Amino acid sequence: MPGKLYIVGIGPGKSDLLTLRAKKVLEEAEVVLGHRTYVRRVMDVLNPEAEVIESKMGKELERVKLAVKLSKDRRVCLVSGGDPGIYGMTSLVLEYIMANEINVSFEVVPGITAMSSASPLLGCPVSGDHCVISLSDLLVPWDVVERRLISALLGDFVVVVYNPSSRRRAKNLKRAMEIVLRFKGDVPVGCVKNAEREKTEVWITKPSEVVEELEKGKNRIDMHTILFIPSSETVFDGKRMLTPRGYSSKYELHELHEPRRSSAENSLKLLEEVSGARTNEGLRIAEKSAGVAKMLLSRARFGELERFIAERCITATADPSISALLRFNRTEDVVKAMDSCEKVVVDVEMVKAGIENRVYREILVASKLGGGGKTVVSSGIRKLKDCINDSFVAVGNAPSALKELCRIIDEGVKPGAVVATPVGFTNAAGAKEELMKKDVPWVVVEGVRGGSTLCVAIVNAVAALSGLK
Ligand code: SAH
User: Which fold has domain 115-241?
Assistant: First the structure.
């Protein structure tokens, strides 16, 4: 009988997740090759007469050469964990036989990959577009891994991370989590260890926690773990992680209570106010771009106020990914603070210029008053300390201003609300994190991104919302 090479995916581990086809070819195999952990998982299925060749990690090419050679006249199974096409053996077999023009009869038997076996244990983290990335830099240079991770995060995909860590590569996980922090903020991350094997563990962590643990030399995430980084559409209810497929735009899924909707009239009035459109054509353009922003946001889980603010941020930047970075604390109180405040305190002139015609309040600019401190703006904010109680504060540009504001809050001053969108790679993310620990109403664009344009978009949206109360 002529031989044949089967590259067999054996799934995550438990034998009832072996496919019927994998079981059949394994039962009929004359030779079985593979890394010892995988071979041992299918031992029960094999014909006792079959020759078993276990090999060690890192000897993949030797294994492939031997499998190809033996398959000339025997039925050979080369076993691979999960699916053999996903970070598995299929590509190496093909590369080897194509490079050497070897004529061998072979068949790939697909298997259940780690992503598919781990996902249901978390809920449904992956239901639509997603990216799969391996953090191993054994075969791919780290700068390529990093670039792909950043692109996937910016593309707002759910990112599934294979090979997150091993004893030799713990620093890759730390770097990856720092990238998530920078581009997505401190989002919940789903983790599954040993899916569909003994000692399964499922938990939800955050990039900051992982970095902290790694700095202490601890690491719960190991080479048997797979991670799920959420997209802006992903929701968590404490235990489960769900990325909705979008059925809520097709069906009314809420049976308990009707979702609140603002009337068309209200929306138009708000739009007129917030866009500053003064002609019918202007209003039509504003309506059209607000429609696009609405569509982009249709799946995000925001309340009515947050949604309106997020729409304005997307319209101002033409960048839907910005909504994933928006954080809110007591949004209703942010709106109330705009209503009741007498003064608005801002860090730079640019913010003042953008909000002047909408907020109808006295606007104090820190950068105009400063001098003599660490930075002009931080000393300016310090000089405004006595005006900050109950005022509406908007920091659009300078992280140092926000840091000083946090210090002033620690001294017992209570601003009515704070909008914080300072921008930059050095201090912005940290300053915003500090603010988010404060018990005052705030709206923050988390991470390194932000800037005066976003600050203005948020303040004007809040002003429009307050005007309708
Ligand atoms: N071909 C395999 C993947 C091999 S790469 C597949 O399709 O599943 C090895 C990585 O896969 C591990 O570092 C881990 O991130 C992930 N992995 C494999 N099996 C897993 C399991 N049962 N539970 C969690 N992660 C698993």
Answer: 3.30.950
